[in-house]
Design a protein that fits this description.
The complex is a heterodimer of chains A (about 350) and B (about 375). Chain A is an alpha/beta fold. Chain A contains 12 helices and 12 strands. The longest helix of chain A has 21 residues. The radius of gyration of chain A is 20 Å and the shape is globular. The two termini of chain A are about 30 Å apart. Chain B is an alpha/beta fold. Helix content of chain B is about 35%, strand content about 20%. In chain B, strands 1, 4, 7, 8, 9, 10, 11, 12, 13, 14 and 15 form an 11-stranded mixed sheet that branches. Classes of the chains: A alpha/beta (about 350), B alpha/beta (about 375). The interface between A and B is large, with 52 and 43 residues.
């Protein structure tokens, strides 16, 4: 490894240590609860369980390889889940000794705290840094497609743009799965960040008939209800509440909706087109006869699937899009720190 | 009573509303009476509606008012079949336009006559009822029904061409082929109408078709006979540049050499059997932008979360009761923002999705992805 690469690797290690310190800072947690709308318990849970600050050496090596080397990197963070800032900044720092970090205007807390805690002169908070001001190197932009397009249009010639867009996760429950434990694991994946992450599962495909899928939906409804008592859902906007209400009305017609004040599990009829529920602890459960019919159901959504969770990852590998992160249920929100979460 | 017979009887009662309207007579029964009977029929024969009623704790047997019955989200027409009859009995299927996901809503009809009489009666009133001629040339800036057999708009346009228009061939009526507007043929047809001394023509089209026409014309005038009418409907769906409604009305009036009040907006959707119109062409006091319901349909703005009616004058999403939807869903919930104004309602555009938080993708984003 070159001296430059070694310096950057050590800087990433220091950044991870800083992340551990930030995660233990009660004032940051309190501010995150205020700015994100997650419940205080939801923030604490995310900081404790979904901040990837302890990678293996192999994962770090993979991260360094992915990052490559750049003269400078501008990291533009959008309103992704707050923990995503750690991975984004780590990738940028792995690539360069000059990193400008532009936090999300709506959710700047974690990124700011992380950069400050890192005490790394190579990490520069640059809240008003415009894309065209970077004359050489890379722009790493996180956000929705229109954000990526805007930044791409403004990037200086010769500057490489690495974009990471929005997406969602899919869960696959095979015929051999134990429904109860699978439902508990999927509930864990669902409640992280109140389902706002691009890894968050929104659809669960259950191999078998409609009755089996409905039994899984009932188990998931119970598991989400139990988790609500420990990790309550945060506050929804009026628009989000409206989307939830309309999803409930849709599924009351087009299948079955199990809902509480804090989550919804919709059960689809066999062979019905897939419905993507709102991201507010809402899960759409659909029966699929086999892998082939599951693949057909997912086909229109393939390019948007970022994560794929399953009880049987070897069988799921035939079904998951090649670009999706494949993991066991319960681990969908624990992607190794080996590169970006979005591998599209 | 067997479902067929019950459906036939309900169709007859629905069409009696239209007949009474056309005769200028009192409605044959109350809106609520027919609506509640439709609720009972649909709860018993449309499986999804039965589920929805049970989930909402609504007992159709006890219903007394249309407003008590739950409405079916328009998305349901994409997710499952919304019909009170077997597929083998289908007389017509209208489909919504496609999306990125390839999902299209389907509205199956067992007896399309009810759609036809209702569409024709109210369209005639809004578009040509004050014209001296009983029939006028009808020019459609859209495909023929043969080219778009599953489009409810193409069906309605063809109905108007047949029932309101002078006899004309398909080439003299439809001016959109394979998404290309044949401006030369349209120009020739209008010229013939002018030479024949026609007092008016009726031009039917979507907003984007009219924008394409305006773009093709540039600054050149395209005068229609003085008493002509234009029915403009629908949004843009990415098929042309978007033009603000008042500006489109103004530019069309200028290009066609007719008054702005002769440009009539229509609001309809595949999931309904009734349409709504501005009354500007036929009612001197009618305000532009205010859509009027026929006596057999009601539009109520409801809170998008509680689905309960909002206060008078407030904006809500559209809950539409359509007594002509006999075999599907007489109460539909559409994601369009509406507000009651006087005797009608304003259409304020599609209800936007909630601003996304985090990087989990919203369905609107997927649908807007090229």
């Amino acid at each position: 490894m070159s001296a430059g690469a070694d310096e950057r690797l050590q800087a990433v290690r220091r950044l991870l240590a800083a992340a551990r310190a930030v995660a233990a800072d009660a004032s940051v947690a309190s501010e995150l609860a205020r700015t994100t709308g997650l419940s205080p318990q939801g923030v604490a849970h995310a900081l404790a369980h979904h901040l990837e600050h302890d990678p293996t050496e192999a994962e770090l090596a993979s991260l360094m390889t992915y990052a490559g080397e750049a003269e400078a990197v501008l990291v533009i963070l959008s309103a992704n889940v707050f923990a995503a800032a750690l991975r984004a900044i780590a990738i940028a720092r792995a690539a360069s000794a000059r990193v400008y970090v532009r936090p999300s205007r709506r959710e700047p807390t974690f990124a700011r705290a992380l950069v400050r805690a890192s005490d790394d002169p190579s990490l520069i908070l640059a809240e008003d840094f415009e894309p065209e001001a970077l004359l050489a190197g890379e722009i790493h932009v996180y956000g929705r497609d229109e954000t990526l397009d805007r930044v791409r249009a403004r990037a200086a010639p010769g500057v490489r743009l690495r974009g990471h867009g929005a997406g969602f996760g899919v869960a696959w429950v095979s015929r051999a799965a134990d429904l109860s434990s699978s439902a508990r694991a999927l509930a864990d994946d669902t409640i992280a960040f109140d389902q706002r992450g691009c890894l968050s599962p929104r659809v669960a495909l259950v191999e078998g008939d409609a009755a089996r899928a409905d039994a899984f939906a009932a188990a998931l409804h119970g598991a989400l209800g139990e988790l609500q008592t420990r990790i309550p859902r945060g506050v929804l906007s009026a628009g989000e509440r409206a989307q939830v209400a309309q999803y409930v009305a849709l599924m009351q017609f087009a299948g079955h909706a199990r809902s509480s004040a804090f989550h919804v599990v919709g059960s689809a009829l066999a062979a019905a087109p897939l419905v993507l529920p709102p991201a507010a602890r809402c899960m759409h459960v659909a029966p699929t006869a086999d892998v082939a019919s599951a693949r057909e159901l997912l086909l229109p959504f393939t390019r948007f699937i970022v994560a794929f969770g399953a009880d049987d990852t070897s069988r799921a590998a035939d079904l998951a899009p090649a670009h999706a992160r494949l993991s066991r249920l319960g681990l969908m929100q624990h992607p190794p720190l080996d590169g970006p979460v979005d591998l599209r | 009573m067997p479902p067929h017979a019950e459906s036939d009887a309900l169709h007859a009662r629905a069409r009696a509303f239209v007949a009474a309207y056309e005769a200028g007579a009192a409605m044959p029964e109350s809106f609520d009476d027919l609506a509640c009977d439709l609720a009972r029929f649909q709860a018993a024969n449309v499986p999804g509606y039965g589920r929805l009623c049970r989930a909402r704790g609504f007992d159709p047997a006890r219903a007394q008012r249309a407003s008590e019955a739950p409405a079916v989200p328009t998305e349901a027409f994409k997710a499952t079949r919304v019909a009170a009859f077997a597929e083998s009995e289908t007389q017509a299927i209208f489909r919504t336009s496609g999306t990125t996901l390839g999902q299209r809503g389907e509205h199956a009809m067992r007896d399309v006559r009810t759609y036809d009489v209702a569409a024709l009666a109210f369209g005639r009133w809004a578009l040509v009822s004050d014209l001296p001629s009983k029939r006028v040339p009808v020019l459609v800036l859209g495909p023929s029904p043969e080219r778009a057999p599953d489009s409810s708009l193409a069906h309605m346009n063809a109905l108007f061409a047949r029932e309101l228009g002078v006899p004309a061939s398909s080439a003299e009526t439809y001016f959109l082929q394979d998404d290309i507007l044949d401006v030369a043929a349209l120009d020739e047809r209008v010229a013939r109408a002018l030479m024949a001394g026609d007092e008016a023509v009726l031009v039917l089209g979507t907003s984007f078709a009219f924008v394409h026409l305006l773009d093709a014309l540039g600054d050149a005038p395209f005068a229609l006979p003085a008493g002509s009418r234009v029915m403009q409907t629908g949004g843009y769906k990415g098929q042309s540049r978007e033009v603000e409604p008042a500006r489109l009305r103004r530019e069309l009036a200028q290009a066609f050499g007719i008054g702005e009040r002769s440009i009539v907006a229509e609001y309809g959707m595949t999931e309904l059997s009734s349409q709504f119109y501005e009354a500007t062409a036929v009612s001197p006091g009618a305000a532009p932008g205010v859509l009027i319901e026929p006596p057999w349909a009601r539009v109520v703005p409801v809170d998008p979360e509680t689905l309960e009616p909002v206060a008078e004058g407030d904006v809500g999403i559209a809950r539409i009761c359509d007594l002509m939807n006999v075999d599907s869903a007489f109460a539909v919930l559409a994601p369009d923002r509406v507000r009651r104004v006087g005797a009608g309602f304003e259409l304020l555009g599609r209800a936007p999705g909630a601003p996304p938080r985090g990087c989990s993708i919203a369905i609107d984003e997927i649908l807007n992805t090229p």
